[in-house]
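Per reviewer request, we include the raw input and output of the structure prediction for the construct analysed in the revised manuscript.
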Amino acid sequence: MIKFNKPMIGKKDLESVLYCMIKDDLSPGDYLKTFSSMLSKELNLINVAVFNTYFNSFESLFHLLGASPGDEIIIPSFARYGILYSIRKCRLKPVLIDLDEDSLLPSFDGIRKILNKNARCIIIPQMFGIPHDISRYHDFCLPVIEDIDGSIGSAVNGKPIGRFGTFVTMNFNDNAILTTGSGGLAASMDKRLGSLIRSLKDEISITDCLMNDFNASLGISQLTQLKKILDIRRKIGECYDEAVMASGCTLVGRDEGKELSYSSYVVKTETPLIDCMRSFKRYGIPVKRGVEKPLHSYLNLETRKYINTEEMYRKLIALPIYPTLTQEDIGNIVKGIRTIL
């Protein structure tokens, strides 16, 4: 059985980490500074803060936005649990929105209906390496946090994800294209974030929230190889796409002008998940849902208010896609898409 996901960590990554360890000082320092600078250039955003946890990224932005306990954070129910965890740990109130029909984006009308003076921001995930132009959500005159879900490298009509929101967050966990083992990012052109970053560096007592040089050294090596990693993922993704065209499943969010990064590979299918798992297992291939659970399930909210989210949750499945898959593995996944889905 192949793994569902496997970070691409090679000799160059190990060498980078080794050189860092030889310094005998792993606290936030030169490696973190270099990694932050490289990310700033890659994202084309001036202010970049790199934290030791994904949670710290959101905590810092909520603080910057002046959010107080009980204030509302608007987020689609079809999102990663880590975002919900961050909102609740900061004692803020998550306000969950259904998806638009057959879409990965939150309902625009749904946000309009619940909007009130207690809302502090809107979080919109750019999931699975499928980019979306989310510019219209700025119409609500609230800061938009664009969570790029570890999916660095995708673009819409030449504009990369990370340039649509007021602020950007990203995780560096094992499921991300760019991994440091753990960690998160907050980035923006907003000068307020620049001031926050300077305060973090000057305040010794809170530097523990910043990524240490050990993890940053791995990030530097990974970022140096990003183009190669994306090229491999796109070639695999294109093979899967061809198979989808000859199957009974469909692709979601694939409008013209999009360049995907294929951080995950998801398809919408009428085949029940249990049948998909059983059939793909014959080829030694694991299959998962697009998200483990919709966020309204964690909060025990009524499912009838999240019809489109529930449909996406039931029908969207994820297949393995990462650079170290063998040609045999890829061939079996292609065969499974055509015959099972």
